[in-house]
Automatic annotation (TrEMBL):
InterPro entries xref list: BCAA_transport (IPR051010), Leu-bd (IPR028081), Peripla_BP_I (IPR028082), TAT_signal (IPR006311)
Domain called Leucine-binding protein: residue spans: 56-411
Signal peptide limits: none
Biological classification of the source: Bacteria, Pseudomonadati, Pseudomonadota, Alphaproteobacteria, Hyphomicrobiales
GO biological process: amino acid transport
Name the UniProt record assigns to this protein: ABC transporter, putative high-affinity branched-chain amino acid transport substrate-binding-protein
Amino acid sequence: MTKINGFYNSDISRRAMLRGSAGLAGGLALTGGLTMPVFADNPAIGTYPAGSSGSTVTFGVAVPRTGTYAVQGEDELKGWELAVEHLNTGHELVKKLSPKTSKGVLGKEIKLVVADSGAKPNIAVQAQQRFITENKVVLMTGSTSSAVAVALNKLAQREKVMYVAGISGSNDTTGKDCVRYGFRQCFYGEMAANAIGPTIIKTFGKNKKAAYLTPDYTYGHTTTASVENYLKGQGWTTVTNQVSPLGAPDYSSYLLNVANSGADVLINVNWGHDCVLSTQQAKQFGIFDKMKLVVPYQVPFLAREVGGGLLAGVYAATDYWWTLEEQFPLAKMFNDSFEKKYGYKPEWGAENAYMGFVHWARMAEEAKSFYPPDIIKAYEKGETIPSLVGDVHYRPEDHQCVRPVIIVRGKKPSDMKNKEDYYEIVEIVPGDKVIQKPDAFGCKLGDYT
């Protein structure tokens, strides 16, 4: 990948040449004797048909590579890169997840263009708008901040270019800010709260006092609200909710209020490096000498980054943990491929990114078309399809994937079997047990065209 004007692009000159000869695409022969498919005529919409008229199609990625979510963003990017490699080579795992896929998507090689969003919505939107205009991307992805996901939802609907969210924990992404052109594979605040809630009650009991650390944007507010709502039904009260800006360098003032709150449990909703800093500083304040810690929406690499065994005994809800390979053969295939390529066990950002691409590819193959409304309608059939954590389906009403939520508990360093054995899996909670009704958060998808 080369960097041009702040963006990463794979072989721009070749793709430009291919777009220039797009008028001949219907009759071109592909490597290996395959013939490029000729698609039924559909009206032009978004980047269709320009984006799929050559021998390649391009995906646009806007992901944080700097800032407080950079570590998680880089992990996501690796998942997308691996998915593209697997799709282009017809990897065995892809064939298990998308049986109609041979190589590429509908016979076309996939290219990536990548920009650093810094977890900032305006930068992500500008990057994707450029990818739409200059690269004719057929699919957008990215986010780690739900504020970015919501902004890209709006861009996708306006430009009629599909968007699959990366990491996005806000209820709003497939709730009040849902769009026809947007989809989400990962779990989110409401699912996390309903999945981990029973474990919190079983572990700490009813009628307890909770203190919250909440990042000041849509993910933080909706996740805290969901956890509060669940625990309130079990007699819990909120004694303080400390709201901080994204990327705060110091949590002393917030933690002083937590320390003096009389809470039994600290529920840290912060994410990325913010969660690392606030947890480390809570230890320094002596908070864990008098209250327990819960992380309702698990942060990839949190246990490693925090260090000192601070996550030992701490419960969290997550999308994926690598030891699921003991129960799910497809998870084992993914883990082995990822570790061979990158040298470490995948975290859930990479898993979510990988599955987002492969599920989109499956739907395009089912639709036999790059025409966005056809792909959207393939998702909206709501058919049961495979994932790395068993069978899942997408709800037609809000485009949310109904999938399990994994409850984990941090291990003591002395109990770790290897350097990445940070968690034990406590429970795999079925998605349909923890997801709200499709209209609960105000989703209205909008038009196809």
